[in-house]
Amino acid sequence: MAQPTVLVVGAAGMQASSLLRGLHRSRTPMTVVGADRQIPEEEQPDGFPPMRWEQVDILTENNRLRELCTEADLVVNCTGPYFLLGDAVLRAALDAGTDYLDICDDADATEALLELDAEAKAAGITALIGMGSAPGTTNILVRLALDNLPDGDADVEINWVVDCHDMSGAVVPHFVHSFRTAIPGAGTMPDWDGLQPRTVVFPEPIGPQTVVTLSHPEIFTLPRFTRVTRAHNRGGLIPVDHTMLGWLLARLPEHPDRAIDGKALSQLFDGFAARKTIHTRLGSGLVVDVRVGAEGYRYSSGATTTQEDATGVPAAAGVLVALDGKLPGPGVIAPELLSPKDFFTALRLVSAGGGGLSVARTLDGVETEPARIRDLIAQSDEHTTLQEAR
To answer: Hey, how many other C-beta atoms are within 10 angstroms of the C-beta on 353?
Structure first.
């Protein structure tokens, strides 16, 4: 049987680079095609799989993009920010009849992609959206907790922080956009107190950090695909004045040409982020609480992992799950529909190690005893088997 072909769009970006390194670590046979508006001139760095490069502009060369999608077994979209670039790559994959995966982290873009569900089903393809860290790993952790909690409606609290040194390129306009869309339906930019700032203690080396309400895909997909009835997302940057800088930039009038707005925001962020040059990088942190009534689970991590690896490595695991034919579908789906066992099995193959994820049982929001991810996965797998048998 011929090796599957994976088309990585936006392959010259940072998250895509991490994804490619993860695929190479897995040693899974595949043909990789990298596509980008500008392809690298230098030699391919160590740790990348053998690959062919194709130059394409996804917004102006629709026919060329469709041709590349037709040649692939899976299209991986690592372009961004997604609220600017929209659904161009998914539509090309739909026209080509090719399965699709992305790392979309914009809430409004996620809603637009979910609206293509009927078209994806009609085309017979599966489009897995938001397969990064948050969203991505966070969704699967929520699913894992739900499979181990009693029946009933669930509440989810997601808290995360990333280091200001990880803020570059498309990440900056995405972060600013998360403030502009923080309160669904509000219609106005919230003031600082309206973002409900609070201190969350993350595991070392991160420690206590300030997080605020920000829009994120999980608050839309978890209630759609699971029994979660309330989901809240809070995030921030280290140090906190960079979070406030993002909020201040979000209060500026948007430029009519949103692409120009994105470039300008990145320049303004770097220009005003004076402490970025003197701040010693800490890393990133994550705390996810899932509760059904009084019972719950809390996931916590603190690590020096870069944001590109935190996003690209789970995406690489999603690629392996897709190539193994284990994506539920057809249709547009979110990561919480994946089997946790399939995902974590693939994650071990693509990971370079680290991350430091821990989990504890909670009662009324207070940790009671530690738990083990592997035990939760075993219970989740048994839960899935019982569901399929019904």
So the answer is: 6
